[in-house]
Amino acid sequence: MAYFLLVIGIAVGLYFVLYNAVIKVGRCKSSTKLQGKTVIVTGGNTGIGKATAMELARRGARIILACRNKQRAEAAVSDIRRESGNNEVVYMHLDLASLKSVRSFADTFLKTEPRLDLLINNAGIYMTGKTEDGLGMMFGVNHLGHFLLTNLLLDRLKECGPSRVVNVSSMAHRFGNVDFACLSEHKELGMGDSAWYVLKIYSHSKLCNVLFTHELAKRLQGTSVTCYSLHPGAVNTELARNANRLMLLLMKPIITLFFLDAEAGAQTTLHCALQEGIEPLSGRYFSSCAVQELSAKARDDAVARKLWEVSERLSGLS
User: Fold this and answer.
1) Which of 121, 149, 124 is nearest to 138 (CA)?
2) Is 202 a catalytic residue?
3) Which of 39, 179, 224, 312 is most buried, by CB atoms within 10 Å?
4) In sequence order, what DSSP letters do the residues of the chain get, joined into one string?
5) Per the residue annotation, which of 91, 202, 228, 285 is the catalytic one?
6) Which long-range contacts (CB under 8 A, 24 or more apart) does 104-112 make?
7) Strand 225-231 with 163-168, pairing
């Protein structure tokens, strides 16, 4: 009986992955050109970020790859320049696990770059640990670093409007919650280092992305800046490279067979960055290049506002 239930569970899981990763794939249909525009892509040296940067470079944008690893970022710059034919692709150091680094990046960018038209908060990690500032690693990198970065660059985005902020989240946000007591006591979204708890903490951080976008849209009303969050699909990237090795081994056949490649996984990001006419949908959540309805907890005004206030305090903005 247990074996039968296991087989059924695996079959249902495979169908779920197949449905979301293959059947529901959308394509960015916008033909928008980006000559004279400047784009920041965090984590643009690999995976979805690199694929996003590649396509935006092909459309003529000046691309800033905001990355932690200099060697890998410079290799990505060379690849994107060569394949896109666009030499306006540069690397600037950004370590989202360090609030000092985020502030340094923003300061350097604002002093050296006159424009900012698109901010794509793409970088993400799936691992436990603490940041330089004593924050939970996934909370610090996946949410708070991007929260601070966005706020430091908002005035430039407003000056260059119409402009957009695109936050790469995940359907995993559906399984997340924001435990403000845990944040207050531990500067972390959850405790534990088992595979289950790591997945939960990741889901919590992805819910933060959605709630951040929800509140940001409210604060941007009346400006020429809009913002969007999204699920890129089940994508075969390096996100989980630091995850449990046994789990990675067990997941490898499923990932190989059913997960999207980075180019396909970048389509919803590109849709949110480029698609004409979606400005009235600012603050909304997208998947497969289409707007999606969110659960009540992912659009809770009070929780989103409180997360913003806590994030301001933890990032030193208040």
Assistant:
1) 124
2) yes
3) 39
4) -HHHHHHHHHHHHHHHHHIIIIIT----------TT-EEEEETTTSHHHHHHHHHHHHTT-EEEEEES-HHHHHHHHHHHHHHH----EEEEE--TT-HHHHHHHHHHHHHH-S---EEEE--------B-TTS-BHHIIIIIIHHHHHHHHHHHHHHHT-SEEEEEE--GGGGG----HHHHHHHSSS----SHHHHHHHHHHHHHHHHHHHHHHHHHTTTSSEEEEEEE--SB-SSTTTTS-HHHHHHHHHHHHHHPBPHHHHTHHHHHHHH-TT-GGGTT-EEETTEEE---GGGG-HHHHHHHHHHHHHHHT--
5) 202
6) 105/66, 105/149, 106/149, 106/152, 106/153, 109/40, 109/64, 109/153, 110/152, 110/153, 110/156
7) parallel
135 backbone dihedrals φ, ψ, rounded to 5°: -90, 155
C-alpha to C-alpha distance for 54 and 157, rounded to whole angstroms: 22
Whether 292 contacts 286, CB under 8 Å:
yes
The token pair that represents 247 in the structure block:
């789990």
pLDDT tens digits in sequence order for the chain, 318 residues long = 555 444 455 545 555 555 554 445 789 999 999 999 999 999 999 999 999 999 999 999 999 999 999 999 999 999 999 999 999 999 999 999 999 999 999 999 999 999 999 999 999 999 999 999 999 999 999 999 999 999 999 999 999 999 999 999 999 999 999 999 999 999 999 998 888 999 999 999 999 999 999 999 999 999 999 999 999 975 555 544 555 565 545 544 444 444 577 788 999 999 999 999 999 999 999 999 999 999 999 999 999 999 999 999 999 998
Q: Are 46 and 238 in contact (CB under 8 A)?
A: yes
